[in-house]
Amino acid sequence: MEGRQEAGKESKPSSLSVDLQGDSSLQVEISDAVSERDKVKFTVQTKSCLPHFAQTEFSVVRQHEEFIWLHDAYVENEEYAGLIIPPAPPRPDFEASREKLQKLGEGDSSITREEFAKMKQELEAEYLAIFKKTVAMHEVFLQRLAAHPTLRRDHNFFVFLEYGQDLSVRGKNRKELLGGFLRNIVKSADEALITSMSGLKEVDDFFEHERTFLLEYHSRIRDACLRADRVMHSHKCLADDYIPISAALNSLGTQEVNQLKTSFLKLAELFERLRKLEGRVASDEDLKLSDMLRYYMRDSQAAKDLLYRRLRALADYENANKALDKARTRNREVRTAESHQQLCCQRFERLSDSAKQELMDFKSRRVSSFRKNLIELAELELKHAKASTLLLRNTLVALKGEP
Amino acid sequence: MAAEREPPPLGDAKPTDFEELEDGEDLFTSTVSTLESSPSSPEPASLPAEDVSTNSNGPRPAEVVLDDDREDLFAEATEEVSLDSPEREPILSSEPSPAVTPVTPTTLIAPRIESKSMSAPVIFDRSREEIDEEANGDVFDIEIGVSDPEKVGDGMNAYMAYRVTTKTSLSMFSKSEFSVKRRFSDFLGLHSKLASKYLHVGYIVPPAPEKSIVGMTKVKVGKEDSSSTEFVEKRRAALERYLQRTVKHPTLLQDPDLRQFLESSELPRAVNTQALSGAGILRMVNKAADAVNKMTIKMNESDAWFEEKQQQFENLDQQLRKLHASVEALVCHRKELSANTAAFAKSAAMLGNSEDHTALSRALSQLAEVEEKIDQLHQEQAFADFYMFSELLSDYIRLIAAVKGVFDHRMKCWQKWEDAQITLLKKRETEAKMMVANKPDKIQQAKNEIREEIEEWEAKVQQGERDFEQISKTIRKEVGRFEKERVKDFKTVIIKYLESLVQTQQQLIKYWEAFLPEAKAIA
């Protein structure tokens, strides 16, 4: 199935909007996207007056794998160890939607043509919504990079934005995926080891607090996100239920010969409109609540990763200290041990400083994003509830007014 | 047949009145009853002019002959209630009640109607009032409530007793407000009796709520969880609706069994309603036999109205079933939504606790509260979905089954008439053959026998035709009444349901309006 989107020209799901610090020296956006059989092609457009670039405005076509490559490049870069790396966008997943469309196509003879048309419409809208979301997430990823004073200067980033050809980055094969998976396990084991290491004292209260906070926060936000998803799903099911109800009421109305005719037909129309409203409630909850929770779940994971790296650095520092002591007692290779310890110390302190800043940024980003989304959620819920009330009242008046 | 329809020997002004009566509603019964000495005549409303032909004051002998035939017709009535049961006595001995009831003998007694008709004008005037009242939606001034389900007994012999409260100003009841305790099988017993008396002559008897072995077993075993309380509540509401529909029927309201059910403190246990009892099995067998018979009866429908109506009800049945299935899905999903919202509320509260930014933490806790209230809202709405919308539909699906049953009875009635005609023909042929053959002595007796038989079958044919016409007429009236009720019922429930939806939305508005400033307060 093909889908195009003029991303720049319409409002994107704004739950993920990033506060771009008014710095227009580098503006990135996804101006277009095409969905082909099993991949999505994003057109990344850059506007910049930075001297580094050959032109002031240019675009390239990128696929999801290339975004992942970029993300991994940042993660593996020691220079950025003290920064929260913006979470990678999730893989575009149209599987579920596609399957549903296919099942619909295979046909259930018990539904009428109108019902079929409506269900198809619903599924297509769903497909489109997923499409828009994936575009938005890829875009936010790039925009955060572009907004970050350090990350935006990365060489790989420039290549990503500018290099006209395919980056020849293939998707991770099974071995690499497995490797990545194992790395995560190793990481968490390592973390556990480090924290239980004797003598490793967290000197900074700030980080101590952040650690406990993030651990709990991350798991709870993950829970909340999952459950918000379920609420949204139930809401969608509810809205979909109105389709056959409306259709059945319609048939009843057309067949009736008495006064119930108009009642049924009006009721059918009511349910059709209610369906659309419920659908909007569901999709707004999805955008303002689910998506936001999901994004901050990933972001808080990235923050946790940062803390891990710092902890690792602290452990290294501690180890270097111990090695230095040992070297001094033995009076062997003291120089090397000293310089090593120096390095570790510097690294640790560098990481700590930037981590502190990053974590504070994370907090303010989080708070403002939640604020914006919760306000918008409440406003939209109110809007839809008021519209529903009006609709219901009008129908009631019409029904009561009949003989 | 026209002879039977000679106008009753009344005063002059009356005939026109009766014309109108025919078109009017079935309002007379309650007033009629107050005029009669015996309170138990289950007559149809438009009594005087039309039912002259089938008068109940015929001598007994005629009745006896028909009893056997009636047993066939009453295939539905498998209860061991004999036609000559004591309850029926009053009907027979009552004054001119030209009732179309099981006990109707065939003898025509036109004049007997006089005493009745004398009082007709009085009825008529009062009925005018009632016509107006009916038009305003006021029905029969009788209100039934079913409440206070109470578990009686223990273990597998336990049962639920329900309080049935009647409030009425009808004078056929001895008090204006009274209540009794009844159990589920009592309701089934009532329906069984009413069905056996009225279904086969064309009255649409509202069906009783369905049995549920699973549901009841849980209650008996004493599971005090929400599913068994829900089950009991569902049943209570269904029983209430059942009784309300039954008393709305003017003919059924007159029935002594119904009166006894509502009034008397002790009721003989209706044992034949148990699913696995002998009577129960007999019922099942009869239902199967009915189904087969229905397929084999090919009736020459002379009246397009019946064919049209049958088709209409068939369509209505299909559509209602589809709608019902969809509404059930809606109820299910709304319950799911409620549960999921509750789960989300909890996790939002947890998240709020973790959040270290104070204002945001507060806002998240508020969000959790809002979501909890919304979950309650969804639950209540699901109940409304179910009790108003879904149950209405399932009630009508079963009512339409009763309507279809009544049409089937008409077919069977026709079949009987048809069979009688065929038998008569055969007998006549036999007689003719006998006449031709020349064996005087032996044959004389046979000839007499055949003569008698022919007379007998002639009477049966006449009765068959009368019965058929009667049931056709009754069905027409009943269907008219049913449709009126249906329109009213649906309209009322639809409006109530929409109002419940409005309520939910308004509550949502309240909750979100309270939350908005909290969200804005995040600094």
UniProtKB/TrEMBL annotation, chain A:
One of its GO terms (molecular function) is phosphatidylinositol binding. Keywords: Protein transport, Transport. The keyword Transport applies. Residues 13-23 have a biased composition (Polar residues). Pfam families: PX (PF00787), Vps5 (PF09325). GO terms for biological process: endosome to lysosome transport via multivesicular body sorting pathway; neuron projection extension; protein transport; retrograde transport, endosome to Golgi. Transmembrane segments: none annotated. It comes from the Eukaryota. GO terms for cellular component: cytosol; early endosome; late endosome; plasma membrane; recycling endosome; trans-Golgi network. Residues 1-12 have a biased composition (Basic and acidic residues). Residues 1-23 are annotated as: Disordered. Residues 20-168 form the PX domain. PROSITE patterns: PX (PS50195). Involved in several stages of intracellular trafficking. Belongs to the sorting nexin family. This is Sorting nexin.
Automatic annotation (TrEMBL), chain B:
One of its GO terms (biological process) is intracellular protein transport. It is a peripheral membrane protein. Pfam families: PX, Sorting_nexin, Vps5. Residues 140-269 form the PX domain. SUPFAM superfamilies: BAR/IMD domain-like (SSF103657), PX domain (SSF64268). Transmembrane segments: none annotated. Residues 443-474 form a coiled coil. Residues 1-104 are annotated as: Disordered. GO terms for molecular function: phosphatidylinositol binding. One of its GO terms (cellular component) is lamellipodium. It is found in: Cell projection, Lamellipodium; Early endosome membrane. It comes from the Eukaryota. Residues 27-50, 93-104 have a biased composition (Low complexity). Keywords: Acetylation, Cell projection, Coiled coil, Endosome, Lipid-binding, Membrane, Phosphoprotein, Protein transport, Transport. PANTHER family: SORTING NEXIN, SORTING NEXIN-2. Belongs to the sorting nexin family. Involved in several stages of intracellular trafficking. Interacts with membranes containing phosphatidylinositol 3-phosphate (PtdIns(3P)) or phosphatidylinositol 3,5-bisphosphate (PtdIns(3,5)P2). Acts in part as component of the retromer membrane-deforming SNX-BAR subcomplex. The SNX-BAR retromer mediates retrograde transport of cargo proteins from endosomes to the trans-Golgi network (TGN) and is involved in endosome-to-plasma membrane transport for cargo protein recycling. This is Sorting nexin-2. The gene is SNX2.
